[in-house]
Amino acid sequence: MKISGLVITFNEEKNIGKCIDALFKVCEEVIIVDSFSKDRTVEIAKEKGAIVVEQAFLGDGPQRTHGLPYCKNDWILNLDADEFLDKDAEQFILNGKYLEGNYDAFSFRVKNFLADKLIDFSGWYPDHKVRFFNKQTAHPSEAKVHQKIITQNEKKVAVHILHYGWDSLDQIIAKKNQYSGWHAQQLFDQGKRVNAFKPVLNGTVAFVRCYFFKKGVFNGIDGLSIAMIQAFFSYMKYAKLLKLQKQK
């Protein structure tokens, strides 16, 4: 069964070459949906043999959906540019394990890395994501941030995606701050409303869960830092939503 690789990009010249090389190990074709990158992302993608489609950013889910008609195969491996299949996931696909049973999507475990350090605490592992699905019956949601794949019959499998998303804590904080704004706008558009206690309450709960219940406390300064970043994200998401309410 042939597979199409699908990646959405914006200024990913650092990762896109390695990502495409990795995808071609299991995919017949690779489709890049690029949001008019300012760096060499498009040039590198074409050099590597990928098909590039340019589209102004529509949001996480809609951008991925936009790329599906360009994929000629039903099975889609939809990674981010900083994600790679681990050896066990490669073998799962190459050996045709996904054809066993009537499943239309597979959720893989994600190993998140800070530089070269695996973050396997504070709830960051196992972080399950559906990145492999059949477009005939499964598809990305319309969520503009952290979309999910809508499926009819999903299966979780104990194989892995390697996610090299950040080189420093500064990058994690910046990305979480960006995501908090997108989440707040999405919640506001959905009609979600909160009171003034919600940001503090959710930020506190996020910290306690990550630091104590998800074993951040056993991982020194890194465990404390990740728990505080999760608390920051949760707090800012609802603080920004509260601000949108007041502005209206």
Automatic annotation (TrEMBL):
The keyword Signal does not apply. GO terms for molecular function: glycosyltransferase activity. Residues 6-89 form the Glycosyltransferase 2-like domain. The keyword Cell inner membrane does not apply. Belongs to the glycosyltransferase 2 family. WaaE/KdtX subfamily. Keywords: Glycosyltransferase, Transferase. This is Glycosyltransferase family 2 protein. Its EC number is 2.4.-.-. It holds the Pfam family Glycos_transf_2. It comes from Flavobacterium procerum.
